[in-house]
C-alpha cells in the first residue's frame, strides 16, 4: 500500500484569495464575517490555513479593505473544497450576507516556486 499522507511541513500548492472593498457598514460586515462566515470557511475540507489582512497597503493600483488567503495542498483539493456542500454554503453566505455591504472578488492561484 502506498502512503498518501501529506507532509504537514510541505508548502501549500494552491491558494484562494478574496479581496473585499471597504464595507458600507463596517460594524455589521465585521460582525457577520467573524461570527458566521469564518466558522463556515474553517469547515472547508482540506483547508491548511486561512489568514486575513485588514487595510493592506497598495503599492500599485487601488487599496482594498481586507484580503483573505486560504491554502490547500494542491489545486484539486482546493477545487473539491469549493465544490463541496460547505463550499456552496460559504459562497451562498458571502453572496447573501456580505455582498450587501462590500464588493469582493476572488481568485484561485496555483503556487509554484520561482
Report on the architecture of this protein.
With 114 residues, the chain is α+β, with helices and mostly antiparallel strands. Helix 1 runs antiparallel to helix 3 (85-98). It has a four-stranded antiparallel beta sheet with strand order 2-3-1-4. It has a single domain, classed as 2-Layer Sandwich (Alpha-Beta Plaits), CATH 3.30.70. The longest helix has 16 residues, at 26-41. The protein is 34% helix and 24% strand.
What is shown here, in short?
The protein has 114 residues and is an alpha+beta fold.
Describe the structure using short key phrases:
single chain, 114 residues, alpha+beta, Alpha-Beta Plaits, 3 helices
What is the tally of beta strands? 4
Order of helices and strands: EHEEHHE
What is the top-level CATH class?
Answer: Alpha Beta
* CATH fold-level topology: Alpha-Beta Plaits
Total count of helical runs of at least 4 residues: 3
